[in-house]
Amino acid sequence: MGALMLSVEALDVTFRRGDDTVRAVRGVSFDVAEGESFGIVGESGSGKSTVLRAICGLAPTSGGLIRLRDETLRTPRSAAFYREVQMVFQDPYASLHPRHTIDKVLSEPLAIHGFDRREERIEQALSDVGLGPDFRFRYPHQLSGGQRQRVAVARALILEPEMLLLDEPTSALDASIQAEVLNLLDRLRTERGLTYVMVSHDLAVVAHMCDRLVVMQHGLAVEELTREALAAHRATTDYTKKLLSASEGYTQAEAP
Amino acid sequence: MSALLTVDDLRITFPTRQGPSEVVRGVTFTLGRERLGIVGESGSGKSQTGRAILGLTPAPGKATAKVLDFDGTDLRAATPAMWRKLRGTRMSMVMQDPKFSLNPVMTIGKQLLEALKFGAGETRAEATARALAMLEAVQIRDPERVFRAYPHELSGGMGQRAMIAMMLVTEPDLLIADEPTSALDVTVQVEVLRILDRLVRERGMGLIFISHDLRLVSSFCDRVLVMYAGRVVEELKASELKQARHPYTRGLMNCLPQIEGGVRPLPTLERDAAWAR
Ligand SMILES: Nc1ncnc2c1ncn2[C@@H]1O[C@H](COP(=O)(O)OP(=O)(O)OP(=O)(O)O)[C@@H](O)[C@H]1O
Ligand SMILES: Nc1ncnc2c1ncn2[C@@H]1O[C@H](COP(=O)(O)OP(=O)(O)OP(=O)(O)O)[C@@H](O)[C@H]1O
Ligand SMILES: [Mg+2]
Ligand SMILES: [Mg+2]
Fold first, then answer.
1. Residues B178-198: tens digit of each pLDDT
2. Residue B153 class from Cβ within 10 Å (0-12 exposed, 13-18 middle, 19+ buried)?
3. Facing residues of B207 across strands?
4. Pairing relation of β-strands B5-16 and B67-70?
5. What is the CA A81 to chain-centroid distance, rounded?
6. Exposed/middle/buried for B4, CB within 10 Å: 0-12, 13-18, 19+?
7. Nearest CB to A146; choose among B43, B251, B260
8. Is the pLDDT of residue A253 over 60?
9. Residues A79-133: tens digit of each pLDDT
10. CA-based nearest residue to B160, from B110, B212, B108
11. By three-state DSSP, how is residue A30 classified?
12. How far apart are CA B49 and CA B56, in angstroms?
């Protein structure tokens, strides 16, 4: 295993508004090595996206430490951080500017970070996610749900980051295009030694993509597993066992 | 079984830089009081088909059909007043991007109460209780907090469930659900599907269930339409998805990763240009 890339230690995130207090993340810790792919699965609302947002400095962290390599991250994050770490948000619609064409969405970060060969990189990034040149001058609302999601993946990859935070990156894709995107991510990791933290509710996707994973429930990390343990259905907590058995599909028989 | 919805030769065209682009090309099907799944490639026209049935094709797009009939009403000739009566009462749609479809500056509770059309002989307290019960039914853990929350304060899956709750409180006869459970973990997904299932079986609702999740569609739906490049290329019994004939459908199953581990890289589809003709 390589050197430590990311370390999350006793992370707490609390949202407050009026009388409502939501402890979205409660004492979550995990380490990710350089070149490793780490998964986060768990209940809807359990704090998975909040963990990724906290790494990017986009959540109200109320306790704990986040380190990238040897450095404790400061808020707000530096420009260098966003060059090294890119995030694909769960909700592609909200993360794409409605009045920017796909061309602008992809060329702006290249310009900000002073990349060369921009034309070539934009065309490559689109074709990598299975979108032809026809899509380049469209606006987000002129795309299908899965096409928008692929633009969000392309935008994160185009900056050639060292670490990618992926929040449900293939949830809107059919199996054939999902396979292409997962293969692309897999290949980039091997070729460039990228590090991934990936959230997905699809256990098969996580089993395929991640070496290790953590299971979250109510803001807590309830169980950490290796890919092998997941594949062998060797879960210790009830929640993870339930997740595994529910992954088989819908059964009419088991009435409530 | 008499048809609740009949769609014959639905076509949807958008103007683009390259000229008009026909994204739905002659879709034909009928729906009874059943669970009809639509699967298909990303960009094949599933969402646009759903929107057109509710008269929600975004401008400058144009939808035409030979027949578009909902329970005896010719939807092609529906006036704005007729649409207001149909939408949100007799026919509803759960959109693919729930957070985008929710009003960002209105609390979930306020939006739910609006959907309930409370005021028709119901007190505010009664309507609120009904709205909270629906949030609870879709497995929201803290319904009171979510009732007070704005859409951006919810997780992806909570937004999706709030949207489902909003569409279900109106008890429609036809529900079009576009990837309604794509952000839900499987344990919550099962509970949401049970609600939909019950509405179909007990109240005779017609359900169009758009999803790319093959395992789910084959175990949950009665029939499945498979779309590719704007056309329905195949119609199957959901339980017979494994015996599909079209090479797109047949190839899909192979592309799925497995929990138990499998091949790397994942198999992909060799798309034949003839499929898109
Ligand atoms: N800006 C916010 N203000 C208040 N509460 C928030 C905010 N963002 C998230 N939350 C709350 O934090 C909790 C965790 O949300 P998060 O988005 O991390 O869940 P998740 O595990 O990603 O769920 P999903 O699988 O549904 O996407 C939820 O209860 C949510 O309502
Ligand atoms: N305003 C528009 N102008 C031009 N083309 C459009 C417009 N809106 C949608 N399209 C195209 O119409 C096609 C069908 O879109 P639709 O949203 O129905 O796909 P879908 O089957 O739902 O895909 P997904 O599974 O990715 O959500 C897509 O190829 C999309 O790019
Ligand atoms: Mg999330
Ligand atoms: Mg769609």
1. 999 999 988 899 999 999 999
2. middle
3. B35, B175
4. antiparallel
5. 16
6. buried
7. B43
8. no
9. 889 989 999 999 888 789 999 999 999 999 999 999 999 999 999 999 999 999 9
10. B108
11. strand
12. 10
Note whether B183 contacts A205, CB cutoff 8 Å: no
Of the candidates A199, A19, A205, the one whose C-alpha atom is nearest the C-alpha of residue B155 is A199
pTM of the model: 0.95
Amino acid in the structure at residue B17: R
Is the minimum CB–CB distance between A214 and chain B shorter than 8 Å?
no
> What domains can you pick out in chain B, each with its CATH number?
1-79+207-277 (3.40.50.300)
Cα separation, A106 vs A197, in Å, equals 22
Q: Whose CA is nearest to atom 5 of ligand 1?
A: B153
Q: Tokens for B139?
A: 């497995």
CB contact under 8 A, A246 and B145: no
pLDDT score for A255: 41
Strand partners, A167: A199
* Beta-carbon separation of B256 and A22 below 8 A: no
The tokens for A103 are 């061309």
CB of A173 less than 8 A from some CB of B: yes
For residue B149, the chain A residues in CB contact (below 8 A) are: 20
- B45 CB near ligand 2 (under 6 Å): yes
For the record, the structure tokens of B117 come out as: 């059309």
**Of A8, A12, A15, best ligand 1 pocket probe by most atoms within 8 Å of the beta carbon:** A15
Q: Residue B129 CB: number of other CB atoms within 10 A?
A: 12
**Alpha carbon distance, N-terminus to C-terminus of chain B:** 33
pLDDT tens digits along A133-156: 989 999 999 999 999 999 999 999
For chain A, domains (ranges, CATH) are 4-254 (3.40.50.300)
Average pLDDT over all residues of chain B = 93
Only one residue has tokens 């319904």, namely B143
Provide the pLDDT confidence category of residue A158 given band limits of 50, 70 and 90. very high
Mutate to test the interface with A, among B185, B194, B221 (most CBs of A within 10 A): B185
To which residue do tokens 């295009």 refer?
A: A177
Kindly list the distances between the CA atom of residue B46 and the CA atoms of A122, B40, B204, in Å, as whole numbers in the listed order. 28, 7, 23
Chain B within 8 Å of A132 (Cβ-Cβ)? no
Dist. CA B203–CA A153, nearest whole Å: 42
First-to-last C-alpha distance (Å) of chain A: 45
B141 with B150: CB under 8 angstroms? no
* Residues paired with residue A8 on neighbouring β-strands, in sequence order: A30, A66
